[in-house]
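To assess whether ligand presence alters the predicted conformation, the chain was also submitted together with zinc ion. Input:
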Amino acid sequence: MAVHAHPDDESSKGAATSAKYVAEGVSVRVVSCTGGERGDILNERLKGDPHILSDITRVRRDEMARAAQILGVSHTWLGFVDSGLPEGDPLPPLPEGCFALAPLEASTEALVRVIREFRPHVLTTYDENGGYPHPDHIQTHVVTMSAWRAAGDPTAYPHAGEPWQPLKLYYNGWTLERTTALHEAMLAAGLESPWADWLANMRRRPRRVLGTHISAAEHFAQRDQALLAHATQVDPDGHWFAVPLELQQRVWPTEEFELARSIVPATMPEDDLFAGIRELDDPDEVCRRAPARDADGEPVVAYVGEPPLPPDEPGLDARSTAPQDADADERDEMREGEGHTE
Ligand SMILES: [Zn+2]
């Protein structure tokens, strides 16, 4: 089960991995915490389209349905409203009633209900900085961690279904090494690289320790098609599609994840989200059993992810949601590289 903030995030983060596991016969569920109601129209060709402007919520629902079909996943809306990406200095307050301001018990219960109904062995979400500091991405992390703690607890949300403890929890990852390799391969092929600015910025962010590498090159085309299905959110002439597929498949054929929590023993590096689970005689039985808990009430884990390493070049505060423009180019470095703003 992949928990995401907005429709389109499932197609830009770990999408080829989702498609790979679907092809292997795994049931994959994507959960979108919000409806993406506050996303800007980023496709120049669709800006000002009266049909889209009159009902962006409906349009994004249709886009999401198409993307889910392309990836072969099932999909659930958690039902919260997009918080939008606040801009300005100082930042404006978040809009009333949005996901980031929803009571944690309400959003946790909603996700616990979906977990107990779908019964996943593995959860994926974002790291504590949200991958980039959109309030909905950070809140998606907070809610998923809260649901990880509660879903297997028979005393928590007893009206939200039978307890079910997922066995592994991952964060979606994006590595400096991957971006560097793609950048250098583009230059070597005599092509213009879209990564030059990103690389400088990534070197100023804390470096996550990503030990999970999923071979998914055969599904990169599917990933791109799913992303293009979010036509209002994606510029088909933008950086996402500037790197030839063949080059990506040759230079970096994997998607990276960070294992944050595992009930089952794990050894890094690994190449399978289900490593350690496949070895169990009856994983479902382990998920149904209430896990042992530590003094803080957290499920006892056999593996916990490593803290991030300091950045190569210190500069950006990964936890801040305030705009950061270290190189004074009037662009927010922490937000560069995310589909919503570029
Ligand atoms: Zn998003």
